[in-house]
Amino acid sequence: MPLVPYEPFRHLENMRREFDRFFTTDLPAFRSSFGHSFGNLSVDVHETDNEVVATCDIPGLKKKEDVNIDIENNVLSISGSINRANEVKEQNMYRQERFVGHFQRSIGLPATVASEGVKATYKNGVLEIRMPKTKPDVKKRIDVDFR
């Protein structure tokens, strides 16, 4: 009979691995028609020489009051809601997979942007936000006063 060292917490390690696997898997029940987690936006961000551009797909917005865009401390925040309640009565609904409800996303920007001059356009379900970059502070040498 081979000797195996006693490991009292071996079963707990297996449970931890299973929990990690379960919670890192994107569960289909929580996915929306956007192809990502429920209520969360997928955002593409790129920068040019003069601006930072963020693009995200948000199908179903009806008016500009349905989306909020904020920039604070070099963080872009996009939030809003999609309401499709008036399209079909709930008792007549056979299957509902399109996203309905509140969405929110905050993203750190790759460069410092000015809050003035930001332009946002929404066309064919795509929101594009163009943010002008601010000029970086010029390196300035500080003289030390020795006494």
Automatic annotation (TrEMBL):
List each copy of the SHSP domain by range: 34-147
Report domain CS positions: 38-143
Q: Which domain of life is it from?
A: Bacteria
Q: Which InterPro entries does its entry note? A: A-crystallin/Hsp20_dom, CS_dom, HSP20-like_chaperone, Small_HSP
Q: Which family does it belong to?
A: Belongs to the small heat shock protein (HSP20) family.
- Stated name of the protein: Hsp20/alpha crystallin family protein
